[in-house]
Structure formats: C-alpha cells, structure tokens
Amino acid sequence: MIGDRVAVVGAGMTKFVRRAQETPKELAWEAAHLALRSCEMTIDDIDAIVIGTAPDAFDGVHMKSEYLSDGCGAWGKPVIRGYVGGGTGVFAAIQGWYHVASGLFDTVLVVCEEKMSSCRPHPQAAFLTIFDHTTERPLKPNLLWIFALEMNAYMNRYGLSKRDIATVSVKNKRNAADHPAAMLGDPDITVEDVLNSPVLAWPVQRLDVSPVTDGAVALVMSANHVARRVTDRPVWVEGVGWNLDTAYWTNRDLAYPVYVEEAARMAYDMAGISEPRKQIHIAEPYDPFDYKELHHLEGLMLFDRGEAPRAAADGVTQRDGDLPVCPSGGLLGVGNPIAAAGLMKVAEIFWQLRGEAGARQVPGNPKRGLAQAWGDLMQVGTVVVLGV
Amino acid sequence: MSLLHRIEHPDDALNWHGDMPTEGRYTAGIAGERFFREIKEKGQFLATVCLDCDITYMPPRLYCEECFSHLDEWVEVGSWGHVHTFTVVHRDLDNEPLSEPRILAFVTLDDADGGLVHYLDEIEPEDVYLGMRVEAVFRAEDERQGSISDIEYFRPV
Amino acid sequence: MDEFVYDSVYLSSRDLREGRVLFETWQPNAQYAWDAGVAISRYLQEFKAGKLIGRSCPECSRVLVPPRMFCESCFCPTDDWVTLEDTGTVLTFSRCTITWDLVQLEEPQMPAVIEIDGASPGMGIMHMLGEVDPEALAIGMRVRAVWKPADERTGSVTDIAYFKPLKE
Q1: How many domains in chain A?
Q2: The domain spanning residue A283 has which CATH number?
Q3: Option in B21, B24, B65 nearest A60 (CB)
Q4: How many domains does chain C have?
C-alpha cells in the first residue's frame, strides 16, 4: 500500500430520477452537502475536490466540471475532473484515494453528477460518436449494437439462454425496491416480465437495459488521522485498480472482459487479496445491462468463466446468498446517471460495511466489498476494494 | 519507415462528414425557476442571500458557494446597476457582419453581488464607459416567457 | 442512510410538454469533417477497387484490420500492406429492430462483427449481414462481402453493401 491509509467517511446522494428539475450543479450540491453532513463536516474542512462526470454532451455543457464546480464546493480549491466514460464513478473514488494517499491532501470531496435528460432526443445522439467516424458511423449504427453483439458473443461462448441472464435484472430491480433513491425498484418483477419485454436489438430486450437517469452522488474521503477523528466507523480503501483494453473493439474477445481482470488483479494485489472468492464478501459490479453483471463477476475472478449465470440461478448472488451482488439494486434498479451510478456503487459498499444499509443490509457483517465500473470505448475497468 | 508513409495525391485523403444530432434541454432549476417566474410575472429581480457570508447572489443560487449552506432567504433587488465591462459585437456566430453593431455588457446590480450579462441599447457604442449607470428594460408582460430574453436590454439611467 | 438521500424534484414529460416548468433548448449545430487519416484513407481507396487490406506488425506479426499505422500492442510502426480476402466468419451478430432515436424498424438490421480471412485470428470489423433469414443467423457462419457495382463505390465502408452467407 502506498502512503497513508485512506478512508471513506461520508456519503450522500440525490434520488435518481428520469428528469430532474434541478440544474446539474444543483443536483451536485444536493448530494455533496449531504455527504458532508453525514460526517458532520463543512466545506471548510475539505482540502480538494474531485469531480466525475461523463460526456459533456449529456448535460449539454462544455467544460462541464468547471460549470459544476460551485455545486461541488470547488470555489477556491484545488479541483480535478476525471473522465473514463462509464468507468468514471469508480475512477473518481480512485482519484480521491490518490489525492489523499499521496499526502497532498487530508480531505477530499468526490462528487459525480449526470443529467442525461438534458440530451435530446436521446443521449444516444451524443454517444453515437464513440463509433469510429469513418469505418463505423457510415453504417448508421445504434449504440445498442455494441451491447447486443457483446451479449450474443458471451451467450454463445458458454451456451447461455436469455433466461439465465434475465435473473440478474429481476434480482437488481427487486433489490432496488428497498433503496430510497431508486428509480426502477420493483418487488414483484419476474423473469417472464423481462423475457416478454420488447426486443430492442436481440438479444437485448427493454428490461435487460438500465434507464436514462438524472442524479448525483458524493463521498468524503480522508487521511487516517482525520478519519479517526470524524468517525468511529471509517471504511478503508484497501485496493484500487484500473486498466484499458485496445480501442479497436471489433478486435477484442467480446465474451470476456480482460480489462476488468487486469484492473481487479491490480486492486487485489494492493489489498493483499489472494483468494477473492473467500475474501470479498459483497460486490457491486457494473450492471448497465444484465449480462454485464455476469460478465464482470467473471472478469473480477469471483466466478469461473461462464459460471456466473449458474451461480445467479442458484441464488448465490442474492442479498442473503454467499456472495451478495448489487444489493443496492444496481444501475438496472436504482438507475444509471453514468458517473453518479458508479459512485453510487462505492457508496453502497460504504453503507453496507458500516451496517447502515437499512432494508438492503446484507446479513453476516461483511468486512470487505468491491465496486467496479466499466466504460470508455467499452474497454476500461475500474475497481475499488473497501474494507473495515 | 511506414510512419513517414505519405498520401501522394490529395484525392487519396478522405474525410467523412457527420454531426452530433443533439438538442440540449435545460431546466431553469430550483433557484432559476423562481428567478425567471418573478421576471415573467412581475418584471423584477430576486436574489438569494447568505446571511452568514453576507453575499446576495445574483442570479440567485440554491446554495451558498462559499459556505455551501442551503439558501432560502429571497430578496427583491432593483433592476439597475452599472457597467462593469462591455464589448461591441460586430459579427454573428457564423462570422457574418451584423447590420448594426451590438453592445454586450456585464452589468453589476446595485443591490446584489454579481449581475447579468446582457445587451445595452438606447446608446451609441462610443458613448459607453465603465461604471456607467444603467437599468433593465423589460418586455411587455404578455411577451415575457420566463427567460433571460424577457429583459430586452439595459439602457442608461 | 435514508437521511442522506436528497429528495430531488422529479418532472414528468407532461410538465415539460405543457410548459409547467421553465426551460431553454439549444441545438449546438456541430458539423464535423473527420479526416480518415493515413491508414484508413488507403483502406477505403482499396474499397473502391473491391479489395480489403490490412497492415502487418513486424514485431508481433499480427495482420491488423482495420489497418493502422502503428501496432497498439507493440507500439511500433506497422510495416506492410497485406491484401485480405473479402470473406470471413461471423464472431457475433444482432438483430436490431430499433433506430438510435427509438424508431421501430419493419425489417431488422443485422449488424455483426466479422473476422476477416487473411487477418490474424480475432481481427474483426463491424458490418451488416444480408440475404439471410434473420432467424438463421449463427455465430461461426461463413460470409462473403457483397460489393456495390464499381461505378457506385465512393471509398466508404458502405462500398460493401453487406456480407452474405458463403456457400462452400
């Protein structure tokens, strides 16, 4: 471990909604001031600000973090914005970690915000440019293609059915019914509901996909000596990792996220984890699509390749299972305001490890959990391991 | 060396035209909704005040940027102030000449901290000076939409 | 943690449609002309001739498609143009019944990643499938490019209309 120990000491968030009346900076403030309140700190106690937010084109504001800055408490402070697409939310916590671990700052406020409802007619209008402008966009692609192509490759490699994968969407939307910020919690949803939802780009159906969402999440991270002072229940950052695959997505093995494995190895090495299946008690892998939760669980080496669906079917990943996965409800249930969704996962591990997750609390006093996100040109993995 | 590979003929260099077909839809927000409603309905400005930091925010904010507390103290502020700085605009966004140059100013309001960027009119560009006293000219009530354009321009007092 | 969740204000689409809340709209009118660059310009010129080409890396010996002037694995210049076949294998596919802006399609589009013969294993390009029953699509299917007539080709990836199943 580099430098001093770094803790998460506070967290706050907005409700995740389809369309918020708040401006993006108002959303950021709502989450940020609650995170400070949760650890009885004020903005004067904060040394530096980390802002995470995904494409400028979503909120429709160029230099988006500079625009957001006052809502993030950044006036007159050192500020940095990290941006690794969908991986941003977890990466923002990694940036918060190295700001403190480096010894530069004692306290950092990490704020992630996304207001996707601003982007009309659909956020895809901005997303389309992730396809290569010359070799792909002339084919008039739909962003869903990438996910459909990846999901099909994954299903084919391991002989999986839609039913094997739909259980993830059901679990997460049911879990989200217990989350006070959730947009799509549904305690009664069934696998049949998912399988009967409209087909968008086979094998992707409507209920396999997380929604377009507005929201913000914030964390307070601090050095050891501050953490000891402000809370009796600090949650320590034990490991961080991130890794990028080739930008040529059509040259990658779409059935296995090697970038997640590389990121996880980095984080596990730092955390001294040699047997992740025994040493990780709770996981929040990135689940913008139901198959991605399974894909990522395998990349995180928490299950053998192709085995995560069976474990999910056997109830292993339920909140009361051997390895609770996305007890928050994930992106499929709570919602997917890109950068904020990733940081929500880190916040969930924080609340779970402190025993503060209320109706979502996983049993058995979990001691260590991880949050993971995925993004950029669908090739970055970002991982944070937290422990108490 | 292949990195020195040259395109021999201009026709061999290709480019692909495209766009990002987005439209931004921006809500006024919590503070903005109240600010622009007041302009639309009453033709006057509201600001929020942080009593602790002694800042009167114009345009109004939901929170204090300095101490980060929630602001729910709203006050009316006069629609007059002075020119903090200005520029004379001769071209439009597509670099076409304007038929008449327009004066764009940052106007700080007397009763608040901060102010608004808006056009100046009823004055020639050569007569504008920093510190000049100006006031807002609101559109007629039935023309107001709840937008910054409900102010037609600022003019000398 | 419930007290640390802010009750943000949810708007229905009706709130906006009926002007119950104030908002502004703006179209950025962003028009781009993206240069194809050195490798892709040559690649597309060969499309006009009805040929697919790749680039080879002198260090890892991979034959790369789409071609690139440097190998992103070895980080060295690629050094040779390699003529590829216009046949390949479907690595994955989809049947898409919706456009990006959520308009329902009558006929499904069939995008695929196609591993191109003559390039290294796993080297795929994205293109469309055609002349095939959507329900008959399968991963591993062998396909061939269907080129537009030579006088209709413009030096675009769309000079290949689609790939169709190969009868071997």
Answers
A1: 1
A2: 3.40.47.10
A3: B24
A4: 1
Whether B2 and C79 lie within 8 Å, measured CB to CB: yes
DSSP of B37-87: HHHHHHS-EEEEEETTTTEEEES--SB-TTT--B---EEEE-SEEEEEEEE
Q: Is residue C17 part of a domain?
A: no
**In this structure, is residue C136 part of a structural domain?**
yes
The half-sphere exposure of C94 on its side-chain side, counting CA atoms within 13 A, is 27
Q: Is residue A257 part of a domain?
A: yes
Range of the domain at C145: 37-165
Question: Per the domain annotation, does A167 fall within a domain?
Answer: no
Q: Is residue A177 a part of any domain in this protein?
A: no
Is the Cβ–Cβ distance between A109 and A72 less than 8 Å?
A: yes
Q: Residue A78 sits in which domain range?
A: 6-121+211-387
Here the ipTM equals 0.94
Could you tell me if A63 lies within 8 Å of chain C, comparing CB atoms? no
Pairs from A228-234 (Cβ < 8 Å, separation ≥ 24): A230/A9, A230/A10, A230/A39, A230/A40, A230/A41, A231/A7, A231/A9, A231/A10, A231/A39, A233/A354, A233/A388, A234/A7, A234/A8, A234/A9, A234/A388
Contact of A244 with chain C, judged by CB distance below 8 Å, is answered with: no
Domains of chain B by start residue, with CATH: 26-156 (2.40.50.140)
d(CA C44, CA A310): 45
Helix (H) or strand (E) holding A173: helix A162-176
B-chain CB neighbours of C17 within 8 Å are none
Q: Per the domain annotation, does A135 fall within a domain?
A: no
Q: Which two tokens stand for residue A326?
A: 């996305």
Asked if residue C29 belongs to a domain, the reply is no
| pLDDT tens-place values along chain A, 388 residues long | 456 799 999 999 999 999 999 999 999 999 999 999 999 999 999 999 999 998 888 888 989 999 999 999 999 999 999 999 999 999 999 999 999 999 999 999 999 999 999 998 888 888 888 899 999 999 999 899 999 999 999 999 999 999 999 999 999 999 999 999 999 999 999 999 999 999 999 999 999 999 999 999 999 999 999 999 999 999 999 999 999 999 999 999 999 999 999 999 999 999 999 999 999 999 999 999 999 999 999 999 999 999 999 999 999 999 999 999 999 999 999 999 999 999 999 999 999 999 999 999 999 999 999 999 999 888 999 999 999 9
B37 contacts on C by Cβ (under 8 Å): 22
